[in-house]
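TOPIC: backbone geometry
CONTENTS: sequence, structure tokens:
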Amino acid sequence: MRARVSRSYVYYLKTSGTCVVVLGGCWFLYQLRQISQIIRSAVNTSVLNLEQARAQYIYIDDPRFKDIFMFRKDEDLHGSVSEKLGSLSDTLARWWKMKNHKLAYKLLYMAQHGNKNERYKAVTVLGSLSHLKDWQYCHLAQMMDAKTAVALARMPNVNSKFFLQPPYYHVQYHLNDVLEKVHTLLLSLHALCGNTHLCLSQFLSKMFKDSHRYLVEWFDHDLTSVGLSVETTTVRDDELLKSCLRAICHHSSVEQYSKHLIDAGALPILTAIQKMCDDDVEMCILLARILSNISLHSEYLETIYESGWIGILSRWSNSDDIRLSAQAISALVNLDIDGNEKAKFPQSIYLLHPLHRVHAATKMDVVFLHGLLGGVFVTWRQRDIDTSTLGVVDNAVVETADYLSTMVDDDHPQEFFKDLARDLHLREWRKIGQDFEVVLDDCPQNTNACACGPYFCRGNDACMTNDDCTSKTLCWPKDWLPVDIPSLRIIGVNYGTSLSMWTPFCPIESMKSTIKERSEEFVTKLTMANVGQRPLIWVAHSMGGLLIKKMLVEEWKTGDKHGICKNTKAILFYGTPHRGSHVAALKQATQMLLWPTIEVQELRNESPQLLKLHEEFLEMLNKYHIEIVSFAETKPTLVTALKFPFQFVSLNSADPDVGEFFEIPQDHLSICKPASRQSFLYQKLLSVLRHHVDTREGTTFSSVRDLLSLLRNSEIRASTSVLETKTSEGGETF
């Protein structure tokens, strides 16, 4: 009986205890909630959330939300989303975006660790990927090595987010601070070269001789930082900075001195200058030229990559200014070890095509050399069209534009009617053009017995249908030839010349002013670019033709050790004075006044050096079969502001007595500048190239084919690694 009572007491105690615990817990939670509400009402606890210090964004790249700001009501937005939610294209797009970021990491790994062919394909596909998030681009950039970054920078239309910004790029430098760093850099370069570069010594003694003024300006900068007003010297300092950058660029042009810039720590200073002067095209060109000179030393690739210059060069390579893009492209090509066949492009040697990595094999080299006072982007620019000589076809276009303008309101701009009339004219020409033959512009007035066309082109020819007259090119070899013959490698040689020795010159470069010295320099630089290892065609204007002849003759005399004579298939001379020019025939009194340079003196009419060079050139042609095409001007050139007519190269001097010879109705400056792709000056060059180039198509790869082959190879490699692992563990394979 007592045991039963005790058990009932225990039961009641357990039940009541459980109730007390439950009720107490509920009361405790209620009180805790009340206290929390009181604290939140009294203190703003959001300030303690340190993890959300920055705003968090959700990147909406869904095409359904591209017009989100056009909706006025919530139901319109939800209705649009619900209507397109189940479309097949959106489903495939979401699937491809999800696969893209997974594929990107795999491609990056193969670009870094695969063989040469796999690296080439992986970089191609990686550069074509799209719809990646910003954080994915940043992550890939952090994982990337120097070789992959350079290869990716040479891909067309690559996203700039693949490249990290330079270190400390956010730091704002004052102009005087940068000048102080540049001055220190110049002093270090002067010491590293052993005070042997006289140009740098003269520059330092001239620009920084007044050290008191420089220290006062530096002290004035400190006064400005504390709020005291001083007279500004920004304009003078800007000019000083540009002069210093020119001095650094000139110093880096000497190959043995360009290495010193890395040792002196020039890259961070140049980065600071680039950030400060990013809108100044001339300063950017100087910076790109310095990087191009440094890029010849591929052992500094890691240093250049770590300084952040790869992304800047990639952005500059797509610049509209051809002077800036050409320098950036040369720097990237020199640093791209896998993609340039170990070719180097030193100063004065420009790669005009291909500008990016290509899969097709290069079948022929075409080298362009300008003449006296010329340049790559001056000599080979497109000639201005003379509107006074337009024919019936263009008059019809004008009449059509006038007719259309009377049918539409006058509020529309006249350019609209001109474009519309041109489109209508081209549409009609495509229908009837094949029934016509069009005479080419700049047709010769006279030829020799060996000369042949083409003098006409059909109405449906590529030069008629693809010729864009709305834009003018500054370098027609770069813009026109790749369209007609994509398998070419086009190189432009640039060199500085002068008419008078009164102008200042560098003591180091003064020994390269004669034709012989320049030809030796160009042979060395062109062989660095692998010129002579494939079929070669030369194109020269004026004195450039003499340099080509001197290079070939000297190579022939030394046994053609670089293969330049053997691989030369043709030479095209545009106004080359084979027997000299009357422009160099100055009287002794005039020579004492003008003090002409050696290169001008060597161009004298009937010069013994030129006559001997031509005899040796003709003798060389007896051993090597080289096609010769020559163009001579028949119009005098208007020189000086008085428009004085002068015949620079006579017909007798322009005729080499070998090959085809054409007398063109143009002056000396415009004979190498075709007005359009329908010009005889361009079409004749095109016919020579097509005659010698191999027309069989090379092996090309598409991005999709590359992607499939890479995935297949990676799957095979993964399965092979699994089998090897099992074998090493003692298993058997069948």
